[in-house]
Amino acid sequence: MTSASNTQNVGKPAVHVITRDDVVDVVGRYADCLDRRDFAAFQELFTEDLVAEYAGGDPVTGRDGIVGFVQRVALADLTQHFLVPNVVECDGATASVSFHGVAVAVTGERAVVRGLTYTAQLVARPDGAQIRGIQQQALWSTELDVKQNPGALFAGGAPR
């Protein structure tokens, strides 16, 4: 016997319920895609109607807009983003997250290090979640002298 609610949903895709794991996955992939310069995968993290606000700049809209905006990370030799979701609130097909982060951009022997805070709003998709809105604030910044690829330090060699 088929219930009335089941017959009403025949042929319709199931609605995904966003979990904390979905949100943490999106935040992790956000950082990973930026640092690997995988802009195609980065674009997939966002909805078509995305609105993003980064550190007081003009709003960036849409998937193409966000990719165009963040591609400037490729001007650095390398970047590392350390992002930690602090508060995740899931409500069925939507979620919000606040996360703190440190972003490092290295060019030559110079690094710019920034302390950041984000809030993001996510919506459910059949296979997880996507970001519909994101807001970033830069809290502090500093510059450092660095050495790239100091592998000998951990391979038993003498530090340079």
From TrEMBL:
It comes from Georgenia daeguensis. The lineage of its organism: Bacteria, Bacillati, Actinomycetota, Actinomycetes, Micrococcales. InterPro entries: NTF2-like_dom_sf, SnoaL-like. This is SnoaL-like domain-containing protein. Residues 19-128 form the SnoaL-like domain. It comes from the Bacteria. Pfam families: SnoaL_4. Signal peptide: none annotated. Gene3D superfamilies: 3.10.450.50. CDD domains: NTF2_like.
